């Protein structure tokens, strides 16, 4: 049912319920981003070589983490459906099987992280930087099994409407990360001075801390007693794990396509010089922070829509979906206008270099344009996942990022001479950001169409069944 046909009290009630779930997720996401920022900042104060090595290691670790988040996300719609249907007794088994899945994914991710170090052998970087980047990945790979299991419990907790624990745990982990980085990077209180490698050890400790803390919290809180997953031991169940993988792997591929596209763009603009690279990183960092808002709304929206579907009410599910998309779009409009109006001030807060700040401000104007599409696509994508549809959104994202965004960005940004239809002068970073706006808009429109078709189809089937 379109939003204009809803009574405003119902809309306000849904917005309030959605925000109650979303704001703790937002704070937790910002705290998690803060951990990465602390790693880079601490390494930068150690030495330029430490900063370079940690940055290279973090770039690969970030792609793995984002992909894992997607693969583990299959627990969200599954548990939310059972929650909405009142089938609380079925939730513990889902969580237990998801944890078995997380063990396998975690071990695979460890192997990939260690294998990815060969990439540094083919890069023109200083030997000391190469050695640090390799050691960083070797150490931090031990955090991946804990991260996989934590994301399962994160999705389970979110799906039963318990989001505040993750916020508190993320804030505690951020504080612990600052402390451990200071101790290990700079060798305070007689500890060995590990430099950038200390960031890896600190991250490993923090991610295992998050896993242990959420298990402790769940054990102590009455909110988890009806669905407590650790009441008995249960071995891995092949069909159950395969079902979760069928849902989660396409989401993981989707997240990988997006994160890897942004990483590749950063490499492609590197040839235009330090000023362009610095401006690109400033704009990308700021946009990544703003993206946490629609992303948090999208995660909360997934639970709200899936619970309505589990309760057998597709009309309510569609209402919740479009209200959530409207909220995400309104937030994106607000941040877009703010970014456009304050572009110069934002860029100036990052750097005192006039040339870098000027170019970063120009890129922030492009960012303001695509925030509307970006906010819409992430909200609609999560609403679609609530219907347990993940493969078609994966294809849409692959097409948008790898079929449109990257090729168009290369044409506009690099203007290769062998292309007959190309700009007279390469647009450099502006060309890639123009392509990002186009790709995200295509993804937003295609996913919106898909949500409309899915919601209408589910209502139609429900009516025929009735």
Automatic annotation (TrEMBL):
**Which Pfam families does the record cross-reference, listed alphabetically?**
MatE
GO CC terms of this entry: plasma membrane
Which keywords accompany this UniProt record? Antiport, Cell membrane, Ion transport, Membrane, Transmembrane, Transmembrane helix, Transport
Q: Which CDD domains match?
A: MATE_NorM_like
Q: Where in the cell is it found?
A: Cell inner membrane
Which Gene Ontology terms describe the biological processes this protein takes part in? Answer: monoatomic ion transport
Q: What is this protein called?
A: Multidrug-efflux transporter
Native organism: Rhodoferax koreensis
Lineage from the top down?
Answer: Bacteria, Pseudomonadati, Pseudomonadota, Betaproteobacteria, Burkholderiales
């Amino acid at each position: 049912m379109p939003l204009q046909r809803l009574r405003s009290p119902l809309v306000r009630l849904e917005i309030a319920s959605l925000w109650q779930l979303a704001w703790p997720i937002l704070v937790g996401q910002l705290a998690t981003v803060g951990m990465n920022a602390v790693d880079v900042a601490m390494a930068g104060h150690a030495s330029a070589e430490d900063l370079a090595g940690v940055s290279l290691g973090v770039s690969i670790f970030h792609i793995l983490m984002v992909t894992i988040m997607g693969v583990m996300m299959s627990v969200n719609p599954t548990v939310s459906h059972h929650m909405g249907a009142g089938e609380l007794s079925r939730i513990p088994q889902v969580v237990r099987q998801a944890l078995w899945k997380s063990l396998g994914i975690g071990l695979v991710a460890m192997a990939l992280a260690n294998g990815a170090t060969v990439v540094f052998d083919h890069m023109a970087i200083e030997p000391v930087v190469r050695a640090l980047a390799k050691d960083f990945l070797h150490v931090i790979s031990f955090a991946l099994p804990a991260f996989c299991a934590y994301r399962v419990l994160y999705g389970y907790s979110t799906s039963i409407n318990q989001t505040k624990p993750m916020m508190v745990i993320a804030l505690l982990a951020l504080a612990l990360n600052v402390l451990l980085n200071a101790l290990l990077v700079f060798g305070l209180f007689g500890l060995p001075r590990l430099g950038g490698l200390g960031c890896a050890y600190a991250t490993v400790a923090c991610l295992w801390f998050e896993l242990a803390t959420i298990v402790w919290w769940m054990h102590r809180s009455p909110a988890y007693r009806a669905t407590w997953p650790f009441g008995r031991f249960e071995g891995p169940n092949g069909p159950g794990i395969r079902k979760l993988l069928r849902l989660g792997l396409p989401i993981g591929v989707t997240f990988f396509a997006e994160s890897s596209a942004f990483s590749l763009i950063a490499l492609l603009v590197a040839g235009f010089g330090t000023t362009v690279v610095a401006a690109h990183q400033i704009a990308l960092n700021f946009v990544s922070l703003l993206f946490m808002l629609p992303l948090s709304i999208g995660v909360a929206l997934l639970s709200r829509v899936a619970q309505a579907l589990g309760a057998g009410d597709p009309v309510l599910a569609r209402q919740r979906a479009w209200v959530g998309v409207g909220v995400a779009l309104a937030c994106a409009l607000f941040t877009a206008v703010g970014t456009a109006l304050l572009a110069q001030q934002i860029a100036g807060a990052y750097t005192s270099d006039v040339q870098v700040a000027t170019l970063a401000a120009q890129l922030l104007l492009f960012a303001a344009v695509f925030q509307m599409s970006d906010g819409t696509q992430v909200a609609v994508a999560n609403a679609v996942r609530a219907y347990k549809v993940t493969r078609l959104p994966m294809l849409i994202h692959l097409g948008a990022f790898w079929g449109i965004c990257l090729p168009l960005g290369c044409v506009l940004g690099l203007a290769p001479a062998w292309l007959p239809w190309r700009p007279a002068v390469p647009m450099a970073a502006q060309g890639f950001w123009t392509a990002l706006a186009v790709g995200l808009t295509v993804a937003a429109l295609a996913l919106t169409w898909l949500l409309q078709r899915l919601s209408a189809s589910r209502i139609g089937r429900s009516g025929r069944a009735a």
